[in-house]
Specification:
alpha+beta; Rossmann fold; Jelly Rolls; 6-stranded mixed β-sheet; 5-stranded mixed β-sheet; 11 helices; about 15% strand; globular; disordered N terminus
């Protein structure tokens, strides 16, 4: 759900001016061939742990002469993983039929044909998983009774990984997944006791992780390499059984967990866009929106979850942080002793079943499609808040989610001239509309129903066939863009692609007239579309020195202007010729403004 967004409310929203056929694996391999991605490096907590907790508690068990349990392991868990195993009767409580022994990022790696990451706390090749149960997003090694009980993500990254790997690995897909423990711990110990403190917990956790990714991006620029990062956001923490009344939770806990979760997600979305904008040539961050994914699963929008029990875990525990750790079959909810865990979302009061790990891993692999843009958080509905599709080169699709009265707007580059095409046909069950706007907010083209309830727009009404940037918007049927002088397009004919033909045809977008309907996911397939460049425009030579901007950037701009390079169209004009003396003044202004 995206109900926290400010653009919802009245039937007419306020003015922004006032304020394919290839598999994911095949596409991934082809698009990343230059980087030769081969393996995964993971930082995280118990949701990604494949042996860290087991190795740590085994060592403590030996030192303390058995006073501490070795966890996770039989009879309740697969060895080293906070979930059930793969085979029938693998352990006393494991009756799964999923035939899956692993964790979500193992499924993701398999689908992307990458070598999966085994726990770093073991020995041998491909031991690139630093995740360990109980980790929070900050630094340090928390202790209990003078003994280490986990290794936080900051320590995993700064102390365990960076010293031996000062330069980022262009052959790795980096994964950072944390935040759940930050929120759970803060709710239980009272740190997140109200809306303000809960929001601060979520924001702080996300900023910690963002800091590690900023550092990777900075090092990638220094090393002149490009890296890939998958950053899942936190799951809906208010929905874990641990906070349910049946297991000792309460409504206040759930409210604060929800506030912290949404604060994490908002900060996550902001930071991803900021990092990619600052380092467009050195990092691509894949936003893995587990929050939205699992909310859709609970709402019945994902077939794999239909009929699954979201409320009751197979196992119950009462001493998660104590000396003893003896989870038992959940008699509180009368989970049958022979119940198939594949029909349950939660294996225990915090962790998902192996089947859900498998489904989450499949979603993560889809989110890492290098030729697709995944909506980050929520795209805005006007040029001032539109989500820039940042990166380099061609992309072929946009995936996102529309709320009942929603509009999502993206800033894209049309680079294929007459071949440009955008369509929702086959990409959603929603009745959609597609719009294209100039950067000044004036309409270019629109279609409601090209095939059934889906929409298609083409290059036929573009003001130029040269490389240029536009705003692409998707909306439910019935939502209308308004200019100060009235609707930009007439409602009919709905089946025809049209340039602006309403009373506000010559004026820029001011607001949208809402027509609430249903919520669901969408996919826009594109041809002839390119990412828009982020970063510092005036850094023409893409240097990384200090100072960043030098006389070389002037020489670079003059050369690219002389070559007719579309980069030199600094003012984004659509005229003929596209490059004019105004572009020199534009470049000078940007140079004088410096780089942030």
């Amino acid at each position: 759900m995206k109900s926290h967004r400010s653009k919802h409310g009245a039937s007419s929203r306020g003015s922004w001016m006032a304020k394919g056929g290839l598999s994911v694996a095949a596409v991934f391999a082809a698009a990343t061939a230059q980087g030769q991605l081969t393996h995964v490096i993971v930082f995280g907590d118990s949701l990604s742990d494949t042996g860290g907790s087991y190795a740590l508690t085994m060592a403590i068990n030996q030192v303390s002469l058995g006073a501490f349990d070795v966890r996770p392991g039989p009879p309740g868990y697969a060895v080293g993983k906070w979930t059930n195993g793969f085979s029938v009767n693998y352990g006393a409580y494991d009756l799964s039929n999923s035939m899956f022994d692993g964790i979500w990022h193992w499924t993701m790696a398999n689908l992307l044909t990458l070598t999966k990451a085994h726990s770093w706390y073991g020995t041998g090749p491909n031991y690139n998983n630093f995740a360990i149960g109980g980790a929070t997003c900050g630094p340090g090694i928390p202790t209990s009774f003078g003994l280490p009980r986990t290794v936080n993500i900051g320590h995993q990254f700064n102390e365990l990984y960076l010293p031996s790997n000062p330069a980022p690995d262009p052959n790795a897909l980096y994964v950072f997944f944390g935040g759940g423990n930050d929120i759970r711990d803060a709710v239980l110990d009272g740190t997140a006791s109200n809306g303000t403190s809960a929001a601060q917990v979520g924001e702080t956790a996300a900023l910690y992780v963002a800091g590690y990714i900023w550092e990777l991006a900075r090092r990638a620029r220094v090393a002149h390499v490009s890296i890939k990062v998958a950053w899942p956001n936190v799951v809906p923490m208010e929905a874990i059984p641990d906070f349910a009344d049946l297991y000792g939770g309460n409504a206040v806990w759930r409210i604060n967990a929800n506030i912290a979760t949404l604060a994490f997600r908002n900060t996550w979305a902001q930071q991803i866009q900021a990092i990619q904008y600052a380092y467009p040539n050195h990092i691509r961050i894949y936003p893995v929106d587990f929050w939205q994914y699992l909310m859709n699963a609970r709402a019945g929008r994902i077939p794999g979850y239909v009929g699954m029990d979201f409320e009751h875990p197979v196992l119950a525990f009462s001493a998660f942080s104590g000396l003893g750790f003896n989870p038992v079959r959940n008699s509180t909810a009368n989970v049958p002793s022979g119940a198939n865990p594949d029909l349950y979302v939660f294996w225990d009061q915090v962790h998902p079943t192996a089947r859900v790990h498998e489904l989450m891993g499949s979603f993560a692999a889809q989110s890492c499609d290098p030729l697709s843009w995944q909506e980050i958080g929520d795209a805005g509905d006007n040029p001032g808040e539109a989500q820039p599709v940042t990166g380099s080169g061609v992309f072929t699709s946009i995936r996102g989610q529309l709320e009942p009265d929603d509009v999502d707007m993206y800033r894209i580059a049309v680079c294929g001239g007459a071949a440009f095409n955008a369509t929702t046909v086959g990409g959603t069950s929603l009745d959609t509309q597609l719009f294209l706007f100039r950067l000044d907010g004036r309409g270019v083209t629109f279609n409601d129903d090209s095939t059934g309830g889906q929409s298609t727009i083409t290059a036929q009404f573009l003001p130029t066939l040269q490389h240029a940037q536009y705003y692409l918007a998707i909306a439910h049927k019935g939502i209308r863009p308004l200019a100060s002088s009235g609707p930009i397009w007439l409602e009919e004919p709905a089946t025809v692609e049209r340039p602006p033909d309403g009373p506000g045809a010559s004026d820029p977008l001011v607001s949208w007239l809402s027509a609430p309907t249903v919520e669901n996911r969408y996919k826009i397939q594109l041809t002839g579309a390119c990412f828009v460049a982020g970063g510092c425009y005036a850094n023409c030579d893409q240097s990384s020195g200090n100072p960043l901007l030098t006389a070389n950037d002037f020489q670079c701009f003059i050369l690219r202007y002389a070559m007719g390079d579309t980069y030199a169209n600094c003012d984004g004009s659509y005229g003929t010729p596209a490059l004019t003396p105004n572009d020199f003044q534009c470049f000078l202004n940007k140079y004088m403004s410096g780089c942030q």
